[in-house]
Amino acid sequence: MRLLHVAGVWKSFDAGSRLIARTSPAAVKNVTVSVEAGQTLGIVGESGSGKSTLLRMILRLVKPTAGQILYRDRDIWKVTGAELLQLRREVQAIFQDPASSFNPRQKIGAILSAPLEVHGLGDRQEREAKVVETLKQMGLPAEFVRRYPHQLSGGQRQRVAIARAIILKPSLVLADEPTSALDVSVQAQILNLFRETKEKLGLTTIFVSHNLAIIRYLSDHIAVMRQGEIVETGRSEDVFSNPRHSYTQALLEALPDPKRRRRSKPAYSGANNA
């Protein structure tokens, strides 16, 4: 079942009207891509390729200049009221730098309980129990509810960011380069945690990265972006075994591991990190 469908989406930040959307310089150009329920779509491309802009449009943080984004066959830019609130509950995000998305004056317990309060889920005692339960799922002790973000390491903050994303039991989680600022060893732990959490909860996920090895490890399907356009899409195995576009071929050639096209997916170790 198709959960998300992006149809002919453009984003021109300097376009004054929809009429000139296709003639103005565009960050995203005529992108069409779908995500099936329970699958992971990996979006890969170099910096400035438009992948993060695409993700922000799916999150309703940036409005498309043209095209549609359909979630459960509903245009996300046309939903309002209770339907919009439900969308916000079902679609969650994990960002590259969790510290910038946390209130530094709030303790971790308050940060994690805030989404539950906004959506009116449980009383205070039930929310506190849910926060502790979710922290434990992320391998963090209950005592972290009393800590502030600056008292945590980068890896611990990213675990809290994942906890915040899943605490509402969403259907779709979008991750924008969530490990790029971490050391390789910590990066491997977070990637393994992300994959285990996705499988355990049956989540549909979109993972954005410039690192094709990471995308290969996590994804069922891959979309390769270059200069705002998707130049190749396909099943992960197909893209790796038989890349059709020259840009995809160049990305694969840049990988240092000669065994990168193996069909098996061992636990991510960080060895292929660029």
What do these coordinates show?
36% of the residues lie in helices and 22% in strands. The chain has helices at 51-58, 81-90, 98-101, 108-118, 124-137, 154-166, 184-201, 212-218, 236-241, 246-254; strands at 2-11, 28-36, 40-44, 66-71, 74-75, 91-94, 172-176, 204-209, 221-226, 229-235. It starts with a strand and ends in a 20-residue tail after the last helix. Strands 6-7-8-3-9-10 form a six-stranded mixed beta sheet, with helices on both faces. Strands 2-1-4-5 form a four-stranded antiparallel beta sheet, covered by helices on one side.
In short:
The chain is of the alpha/beta class. It is about 35% helix and about 20% strand. Helix 7 links the parallel strand 7 and strand 8 (about 205-210).
Distance between the termini: 34 Å
Counted by DSSP, the helix tally is 10
Radius of gyration: 19 Å
The tally of beta strands, per DSSP, is 10
Q: What average pLDDT do the residues reach?
A: 90
